[in-house]
Amino acid sequence: MSLEANERAERIQYSLDEANESIEDVKLLIENDRLRAAVNRIYYGVFNSLLALGLANDFETSKHQQLLGWFNRNFIYKSLLDPKFGKIINKASNRRTRGDYEAYVEFDKEVILEMFDEPPHAGNCKGIDKIYMGCSIRTRQLMFNELMIIYG
């Protein structure tokens, strides 16, 4: 299905708004020790940003694994981004799946805070990633927004 430019722009903005809302939700969830729900919202903040990036690059899917595979093929494997971002997204996806579908899963608050607000570090940066030295969920969302603008 091919989208008209204005419909594509609206869907991109909607996905980014959803991502921003997820990030705001995470803050409240962490403050109230709703850690499983926080993991879910962290993941969906990234997922919705990736949806926007996909739409900006004429890629559409509602399937999580298809979207993650597309992102890895087009940004990680082509060395447009440091592989650490693929690992961060994969870890968030795995944790979200555990929290949503497995019984008796508990997350440590420190792990959730690390997922949400990882400290900046130099790492092995390539391409656009040089702009985004930190790995916090907020920084990652900005990274995806920037990628969408540059490559979209």
Q: Count the strands?
A: 0
Structural class, please? mainly alpha
Report the end-to-end length measured between terminal Cα atoms.
Answer: 18 Å
* General form: globular
Strand content: under 5%
Structure description:
There is one protein chain. By secondary structure, this protein is mainly α. It is 68% helix and 0% strand. It has six helices and no strands. It is globular and about 45 Å long. The two termini are 18 Å apart.
Quick recap:
This protein has helices at 5-31, 35-56, 64-76, 83-101, 109-116, 137-151. The chain has 152 residues and is mainly alpha-helical. The longest helix has 27 residues, at 5-31.
List keywords for this structure.
152 residues; mainly alpha
Describe the protein's topology.
Layout: H1 5-31, H2 35-56, H3 64-76, H4 83-101, H5 109-116, H6 137-151
